[in-house]
User: Fold this.
Amino acid sequence: MEKNVLTVKNLNVSYEESEGKFFQKKKDRAVLKNVSFTIREGEVVGLVGESGSGKTTLSKAVLGMLKRYEGEIVHFSDKPQMVFQDPYGSLNPVKKIGWILSEPLRLKGGYSKEEQKEKVEQMLLKVGLSSEIADRYPAQLSGGQRQRVCIAAALMLRPKLLIADEPVSALDVTIQAQVLKLLQKLQKEMGLAILFISHDMRVVYQLCDRVLILQDGEIVEEGPVEEVFFSPKHAYTKTLLEAAGILEEGV
Amino acid sequence: MKKKKNYNLILGCILTGLVVVFVLVGLVYTPYDPEAMDSSLRLAGVSLAHPMGCDNFGRDILSRVIKGSGTTLFVALGTVAIGTVAGTLIGALTGYFGGIADEILMRIIDALFAFPSILLALVFVSLFGSGKYNVMLALGIAFIPSFARIVRSEFIRCKNMDYVKLARLAGAGHLRVMFVHILPNTLSVLVSAVMIGFNNAVLAEAGMSYLGIGVQPPDASLGRMLSEAQTYLFSAPGCALFPGIVIIIMVLGFSLLGEGLKKTA
Assistant:
């Protein structure tokens, strides 16, 4: 039986919201309502929803970046790692790629300089970059190369779960396809589970095993990709599919 | 494309280099003892033996300018060091963590900002006495707010960047994130601020010594020399002219260097 890497049970998150007036009682606005799901080992789960539906909040909660939440988030492995949408902001502009990639190893400790260098080189090759890149600064790389470096950085410590927040939507269409292929390859090689956050239904269909549809902080539909895409039950899922041109209108 | 030459940087380096060489030579060699008086040479004009002439006590001005530049530079360095280190620490902590401590510290700094730094230093010196080290400390403290502000705003800009979040996720502690990941990103701004601060420190030291509350005799400093020379401005202009020229070269050199570095960053 496959093991779970992440279980989220009845997750509720709300943000304090004030309208910028003094002495006004702060109101709580619910961002996530009773969200429950699991991710199994080596499984790619898509999380789809429009902006403002709580996708980013959910990823933050899973990564432990939220202080205030109710519910249960259980990890069955080491800390999950993250790939952000914007490869320009994800890499420290004053550090060389080699330094950025070896930082997780330094933080974990127990690796000699040579081991670090070797691991960085291996990882660079794994994400389809040459090892010379280690001596360059982020500004000297293209968007696609940067996103490959980001993926490499996230995988340095071989996490069991990777959270990818719109990892390809800032890239050119041709580069998008390459990076998606890379993610697929790495996922198979490393037995990685991925929580793939996206608004692009086509990309989700290509990459994911299962999909969660999030609307206004609630999971309105979930299931295997084929099932959700070809026999959507919820009206919102249908709207999303129609907007992406996958489902014909009125069918 | 042909790279445009950075004349500011080149000229700044030359002038600053000149001053530094001048001061370093002064550490081991001056033509005469800068404190040796000779009444026969009182206010002597420019001559081969005394290329800048002598002051009202018959002391060789060239030797005193060399020693005095050293003192001025030393005080300016110390001032900027205190201001930069303390300002960076305060700015980094307040910018990174924010919250109530940030509010309180920044209001204090705003209040400090309301006074000209020279006035703050004046108050400090009148409380704790004058002298080289007190001037340094006084000016250093007066310089903290400007550095703290600059560093704070840079930290606020950087702390929400994705690479900071990723560093935290990879397991970096707050201190490591602040000083290993974020601080190097503020360097380009900090370096030019340090250069400008250096200028202000040179001028402030000269100003305070000129007012008689800075470096005390027998230490020579450029401001002190100007102050002593003002009575003889017409009978022996060299007494004021040469220290003045060195101050100009120093300040010009550092501002050009600062401008030049800003362009390369």
Notes: Chain A touches chain B at residues 63, 65, 79, 81-82, 84, 86, 89-95, 100, 103-104, 107-108, 150, 153-154, 156-157 (CB under 8 Å).
